[in-house]
Amino acid sequence: MALIEVQNLRKEFKRVIPKTGFLSGVRNLWNSNYHTHVAVDDISFQVEEGELLGYIGPNGAGKSTSIKMLTGILVPTAGSVKIAGLTPWKNRREHTQNIGVVFGQKTQLWWDIPVIESFRVLKTIYKIPDDQYLRNLNQFRDLLEIDQFENTPVRQLSLGQRMRADLAASLLHDPKILFLDEPTIGVDVLAKERLRTFIKEINRTRGVTVLLTTHDMQDIEKLCNRMAIIDDGNILYDGSIDDLKSKFGNERTLVIELDDAPYRLNLPGTRVLREEGPRVWLAFNRDQLSASDIMMRVAEHHTIRDLTVEEPEIESIVREIYEGGMSGQKKEEEHVPVLDLQ
Ligand SMILES: Nc1ncnc2c1ncn2[C@@H]1O[C@H](COP(=O)(O)OP(=O)(O)OP(=O)(O)O)[C@@H](O)[C@H]1O
């Protein structure tokens, strides 16, 4: 049995349709006109122990609502969730012992007390034995260097420091599963790298299963081997990043440096993305053309000094899926128009 089993999960929110006009403020107090908003429509997936799953989607797709149901904060309208055999919103106490949660936008720590005091409060709440607490604290001092700021109140920490403290706090009780909702949001490049290294390390060494939501595709590329793309409350894609690239990322870019300016470089099946002096970036569909075909055609008119083939960026594949859904047909028509050879 998988560690996380989600089946036909659905969440509807009732929203009041506001009354307008005379005394609307008062009349809205007794307003019983609702419309139903479907935040999560019908989601099913499974996560095996030790997996690191990226859960991504555009704003409003339903990611946070899903995470809130998986952590037991929200009760779904329909569907089922079993995590380590428990139903999160029914077995909240036992479930809380199994999970750690970090919301990048909101700290779980107490704002006005030093970080280490927050940790002590958590030690009491989770009934963490002394030896386990000290072992974990020392490891986090080592890996996250929290000793540099553990006596500082949370409100005085930088965002990167706060995220390190939140991550450490979420793991003090040795949870099996870690839910990370945008853990790198707003932090600088170096701090992001440090957080990613830590997440990878605890997944590798402790076998912690991680479900990560993020808008940063670098997080996904560097951390996850599997990703689920969600939009409008439904899963559009669930699979490996390599599969996503090979199924949907059939566009490659050939960067050619010529001896002269790329005059008359107008080849069927390619699209000029950029020109910079003697360099030109040509997009092509690798199912229809090969880099060597293009090279030969270019060599008929120019002397080639250098060339490289760039793989598709996961960022651009995901952007295309957000914009055009999963239809490969649409993407090909839009992105690789056939040009006439001059
Ligand atoms: N408590 C609520 N009441 C009414 N509608 C809600 C509530 N919470 C979320 N929604 C709506 O449900 C939809 C999904 O929201 P959700 O926060 O899950 O999206 P998200 O994928 O996490 O977006 P983002 O990337 O912007 O955080 C949105 O349209 C949102 O407005």
UniProtKB/TrEMBL annotation:
SUPFAM superfamilies: P-loop containing nucleoside triphosphate hydrolases. Keywords: ATP-binding, Nucleotide-binding, Transport. Gene3D superfamilies: P-loop containing nucleotide triphosphate hydrolases. Residues 24-257 form the ABC transporter domain. GO terms for molecular function: ATP binding; ATP hydrolysis activity. This is ABC-2 type transport system ATP-binding protein. It comes from Tumebacillus permanentifrigoris.
